[in-house]
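Exam review. A common question shows you a sequence with its structure tokens and asks you to describe the fold in words. Practice with the pair below. Do the first one on your own.
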Amino acid sequence: MLPSQLRSTHLLLAYCFLSTFFSFRFIYLAKQSSLASHRDVFDGVGGNAALTPPGFPQRIWQTSKTGPADMEDGDRKAIQSWTKLNQKHRYEIITHHSGESYVRDKFRHRPVIQVVFQDLQDPMLRADVIQYLILLEDGGIYTDIDTKCLRSIEDWVPSIYNREANFVLGIEYDSFGNGRWLDWTLDLQLATWTILAKPGHWALEIAVEQAIRCLRRLARQQETTISEIKTGYREVLDTTGPAMFTEAVFRRLVFRNGFELYLAQYQWTYLTTVDLRRLNLTY
């Protein structure tokens, strides 16, 4: 359990405790902002956003190396918590091999993604990348296999925000300006172990592209190929994990229509101890 200084503050959703006992402070990123000014970065922008119904897709996604066959009893019970409380939602587990077929089918128009994912063999890095790809293409909720749902997903977003909000995530770690934990690279880190999204959101586009850049960079640093990358905790955190994701999202938030805003507005201090008045980010 995290220490007391990481306690949650008052938010639109007071608390959502998962089995890992992180305090989940929700942030709503409203508006599917256009990526037109960043076309040079992306090899193709997903087209699902314009076709998305007002609400979030009723889909629950999880990943597992081999699927239910070899799953521990604790993970089975955790899965049941999601399906029991969210019976209107379609549930699917993506495995190491089914992830390959998913990317092959869904991203055939994006060869860079196909090649990188096919080459990527590290199970931790691959699991991170597939969750971004799933949410980018199909939306819904991704949650780690060992998390437990204690509240229906339909209750996560108040009805007054359901049409406006397109991306919901929590703050995993907040130093509150008191110094970072050992081995953590940021003062504030967004959570990636549970994300609710509508398809085609820019944050997921950014995450996918940045993960590919980081994977290529790590391969160069190790003087090897993406398929032979060796990782420890820090490499996963910074290459495809929440540190990479947090930096990528914050970097995008300082741009609007191609012009840089005041950078300080979206530094980590903008979200630390976030309260109701500062919850809605509208880019």
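Now try the second one, then compare your answer with the model answer below.
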Amino acid sequence: MEQPPVTTRATTVTARGRDVSFSYQEDTGILVLNWEDSQDHVNDREVVGVIDDPRGKRGNEIQPQLILRVVTSQSSPEEPKKKLSFQSLPVTGLPLDYLNSHLLETVSEYLDVPPSADGSRNLHVIISVRSGLGEAQQFYDDVLSHALEAIDLNHETYNVHITTSENSITEITEKLLLPRANDGIPQTVLLLSGDGGIVDNVNSLFLSTRSEKYVKPTIGLISMGTGNALANSTGLNLDATRGLRCIFKGTPHPLPTFTAQFSPGSVLLTNEGRSTQPIPSSASGHTGIMHGVVVCSWALHASLVADSDTTAYRKFGSQRFQMAAKELMAPEDRSGPHVYNGKIMLYKSNSENEEYAQELPDTKSSYIVATLVSHLEANFTISPDSKPLDGQLRVLRFGDISVVDVMRLLGMAMQGGGHERDEMALYEPVTGLRIQMDEEDGRWRRVCVDGKIVRVAEGGWVEVRRDREEVVDLVA
């Protein structure tokens, strides 16, 4: 039976102070504004929200409102880089169904966080200037600062922190956020960063002593990274606002994390792999501990992340991962891809919720990840069964298979899934994972924890476990 066409409802409103013909096409999510001499289209994907105009109404006129939107523009055909800007569009007479979808009636509590007793602000903006393609500062200047001002949060209501080194977020967390959290003070951080900024924040909180009065900071993530796995897996990037709409309309949820513990002698690689430093110790004295929110991996995934983490590669954005993968899968010396050797132990729960260990019979792997998220990139569905913030650790592993099959399986992941059901893939929910490595060359003992690279000591191991508590809430 043929379905009736979606109707377009029209009415007369004002926009930018002028009479306008207004129509909202619900099937496409497009708001069309027709003036006598011009036209504008507002896509639902770019709308942050609709607020009542703070200037109020005059007499008996209709309450004027503002459509808050993030506009994408291109300076010239020769300049491929697109620029984002904020626009506040004054209108009157919006239909009820449009308002039901977009109206922001009040400012969320986590944005309207009160100052401390001494007057110090507890709303923070952290700008990670080196994340991804380096767009964070521009997004704050051209979008976020104006969006906050539109809901009456001016520069005097929050602190702005600009990163100056790879340790900046760790230092801000340890010196500012942690002491106040331990004093029971609610705090909100609007973090313009990729996954690495969240990881730095989480690790700093986990590795420090937390008091009985500890109150989890609330994180609002503006996705500025390369892969943006957390944002793509929690729905923050379903629209075109980089997560800004979610910050204005979302709800804080506990952020699940995992612990990766490394054998003695393992080191953190820095400075594009040219330098090393010890893995931090926890406040309780445990050594070789790192925490993550996205993925812990070995074999091909860890190697391609490590090899692509250079200034030369980063300019290509998320394409850098595919470029590094091709070099690993087809080395110039035509030796073929490396097959990684090590014993793998999976920890699982039975029907009575009792944990047991299962050692895999074969020791050769081409790809293995333990993850809490569904997507490693917008179009890379690594774990199709994962739901946003469900806290379930899952393992995906390919054994000693051909280059053609590895690329076939990863290609399926890039198309939304199906690889997890292939007979050449192991894909299961787990409570933990342990890898005992048997590799002489340190290049093949590299492990990735949310983009950070650890070189495991020769003959060493890494064990991954889901954390039993959360230290931050994420707005989603």
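Model answer, second protein: Residues 136-150 form the longest helix (15 residues). Residues 3-8 have pLDDT under 50 and may be disordered. Full marks require stating both points clearly.
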